[in-house]
Amino acid sequence: MTVESTAARKPRRSGAKRTSGKRRTTDQPELVQLLTPEGERVEHPEYSLDPTPDELRAMYRDMVLTRRFDGEATTLQRQGELGLWASLLGQEAAQIGSGRALRDEDYVFPTYREHGVAWCRGVDPVNLLGMFRGVNHGGWDPNSNNFHLYTIVIGSQALHATGYAMGVAKDGADAAVLAYFGDGASSQGDVAEAFTFAAVYNAPVVFFCQNNQWAISEPTERQTRVPLYQRAQGYGFPGVRVDGNDVLACLAVTKAALERARTGQGPMLIEAFTYRMGAHTTSDDPTRYRRAEERELWETKDPILRLRTHLTAQGLADDAFFAELEEESDALAKRVRDAVRAMPDPDDMALFEHIYADGHPLVDEERAQFAEYQASFASAEEGN
């Protein structure tokens, strides 16, 4: 098996050699892997993990329920219930593995696709959908789950995470910050600035790049001339590439990186090498820019199938477990579907709330103007 990007415009030949759980190709870097696509456990000299059967089943459940929720959200958008949706299909292992590596006191800065991480942080899936339905600007309190609001601006959350991490360091807190972004966002200046400040101030932040091979319609090869994780070297902190479809490897590497950050050793970059199985968002048509063979190849590396194969082969899960989980998935989908359709329209005047902590004369003036404008519709209806 090769770990090279299947998003390349032209196929390249490569050979693979297994060495202590790492994969090497003739032109690609080593890859941290603990669970092969065939569901086989392998060891790694730097990153070890010894999960219990309960922990393995719990991670499988997390991935299955996250995928089911994600699929339901995509369907709701197609039915006109959501304005847009960014699917995580294929990236469940990267998100659940890294999300389960966090402690309660750690803080997360997501993009707009980290539905699995939100699940790990205890954010109700229904709350994720309010923004995409257009009824709120983020339906959860970031401080209650240490999970920041979704960030639509590409790459800016890396700066937010770095600033927050600098504050954590000044406070002397025993915590770390985890910042998510994609391969496309790695080309943004905000990410470069975040790397600079994180390195100079030795901030306790871990940058987690989900390299899903495509920045909308541009392949990774158009984003960088070196593997993304190697960019960390230029800023003075370590980087590592992990098999993003291996939930165990993602968990082990992220745990180690977060602990490194907490103990004052500074930032680290993790590149989770994975694949976006679906569209960039529901407004995108991936068939216009990538081959069907790509998806077919990556389907053989499916993160959920990989762990299920391992659980079954090791006798750690039976038919009753999978059947019960299927019922739970159906119940989650129904709850999400019913809750979205029952979401009330927002209060029109809420637009002006929570802008300034102590209020502002201009906002007050704009609120009054908008209230008068809204009232004019009622007056017109009365006149008719």
From TrEMBL:
Organism per entry: Streptomyces cuspidosporus
InterPro entries, per the entry: Alpha-ketoacid_DH_E1_comp (IPR050771), DH_E1 (IPR001017), PdhA/BkdA (IPR017596), THDP-binding (IPR029061)
Domain Dehydrogenase E1 component intervals: 61-342
Compositional bias segments (type: Basic residues): 9-23
SUPFAM superfamilies, alphabetized: Thiamin diphosphate-binding fold (THDP-binding)
Co-factor requirement: thiamine diphosphate
Keyword Ubl conjugation: no
Region (Disordered): 1-53
CDD domains listed in its UniProt record: TPP_E1_PDC_ADC_BCADC
Name of protein: Pyruvate dehydrogenase (Acetyl-transferring) E1 component subunit alpha
Keywords, in A-Z order: Oxidoreductase, Pyruvate, Thiamine pyrophosphate
Comp. bias regions, Basic and acidic residues: 38-47
